Amino acid sequence: MKRIAFLLFSLLLIFAGVISSCKKSNFLSKGNLSFSADTVVFDTVFTTIGSTTQQFKIYNKEKKTVNIEEIELMGGVNSPFSMNIDGDIGTTLTDIEIEGEDSLFAFIEVTLNVNSQTFPMIIEDSIRFRTNGVDQYVKLAVWGQDAYFHYKDINAGTWANDKPHVIYGYAAVDSATTLNIQAGTDIFLHKNAILYNYKGTLNINGTLGNEVTFQGDRLEAMYDDVPGQYYGIYFQEARPSVIDYAIIKNGTSGVHLYSRDQSIPGYTLTLTNTIIENNARYGVFIYSGAKVKAENCLITKNGNHALLVLEGGDFFFNHCNLLGYGTGDAATPAVGISNFYNDYTNNVTNIGSINEGKIYNSVIYGNQTSEIVFDTIPDAAITLSFDIRNCLIKRVPAATDNYYLNIFWNNNPLFNDVTADNYLFSASSVLNGGADAGFPPTPNLDIKGVARGASPDIGAYEN
Questions:
Q1: What tens digit of pLDDT does each residue of 400-413 get?
Q2: What does the alpha-carbon distance between residue 305 and residue 284 come to, in Å, rounded to a whole number?
Q3: Given 143, 164, 186, which residue is the final one in a domain?
Q4: pTM of the prediction?
């Protein structure tokens, strides 16, 4: 009897354990977590030993309890961040439960000793939450150097130029406002970041030798010539804006313009004395009606086009170098002009006008067989107007359209050293004295401040 009683007691214990396990399983949610923020940003600028704390909430929106199997600070013990999850501290935490429709607080601290080492512009880490086998992440970011930081902010007035500006996410110019960026301002943009002008005015006012620079925020030497580190400068229905003496490099689209305010007859953007190079896709992208005037500009080594016009738009380029030499697998002609766009999502083709399509006294050259292409659709309701003259153009075969005048077809410009970005040229180049000084009026100085004479040279540089 004792043996039978013992066996029955054992079976009862096992059965109770199974029941308990089943109950626990039945009462735990199969759902995942929600968070009050997907990115925690520390906007304190650290110039000495500093420490600050931010917080976010972790939500269980289900009715059942959820078990967080693991919470991990991905940088581990080497991370400048530390985490406290509702009182539990460590780089890895396990088996933390949140009751149904309840939440926990996460406290994040960061400590940097900027005086003892050189930090990048932005230091990042993340926290991984594993729930029911699914990983979710909250990003962490802290400014690592003394700079002005912009995180999804609205800007107007004038940016100071006494220290760099760093854009994380976006820095925006809002409707009917103006942002002025002074000569000598260095602007660093984080991955996918953008300087965004929405129906406002953006004036970038560099000077010779004191240009405004745009580049990625990775400062290691290996990133000096890596394209696609950020998006670029974006104008949407912008009021007349200016970029003068700027260097825009290593983005995705150097300058992207979308549409314009039809009530304003002037140019959306006047672009002068500017270098746009080594962007992953486009140098200047004019889309759906924007209007650009450019003089004394070097646009080179971009992944696709130096100049792309899509679904119409107006352009007037004078004394510019519109060059290919891109190294990407999808390298395309330096100049691509189209007045339409196929919207496959809605199964429509959008067509726009090109009321002004002028390229004067410029070089269109590169590694492709033809460095200028047109793909246009005529329509009774739209205008197509082109005027290209006094240029050196690489195109095989040479074009016979009547809007080309005084063109040097397929002559090598004899640049000194394209690899080293030296676009001065041999004395025997046809660029020497090939421009027309009076049509339109030639800028008195070239991109380097060299005076142009009575017989100016083609392109942005005067030999």
A1: 999 999 999 999 99
A2: 8
A3: 143
A4: 0.80
Beta bridge partners of 236: 198, 258
Averaged pLDDT of the chain = 90
Tokens of 20: 């308990």
pLDDT at 459 over 50: yes
Are 69 and 182 part of one and the same domain? Answer: no
Question: Is the torsion defined by CA of 113, 118, 122, 124 positive or negative?
Answer: negative
DSSP-derived 3-state class of residue 19: helix
Predicted local distance difference test score (pLDDT) of residue 433: 96
Cα distance between residue 206 and residue 276, in whole Å: 14
| CATH code assigned at 90 | 2.60.40.10
Question: Domain range holding 268?
Answer: 148-425
State whether 128 and 271 are in the same domain: no
- At position 262, the amino acid (one-letter code) is Q
Q: Is residue 160 part of a domain?
A: yes
Identify the domain boundary among 96, 119, 143: 143
- Look at the alpha carbons of 434, 439, 443, 444 in this order and tell me if their dihedral is positive or negative: positive
Mean pLDDT of 341-357: 94
Instruction: Compute φ and ψ for 316, nearest 5 degrees.
Output: -140, 100
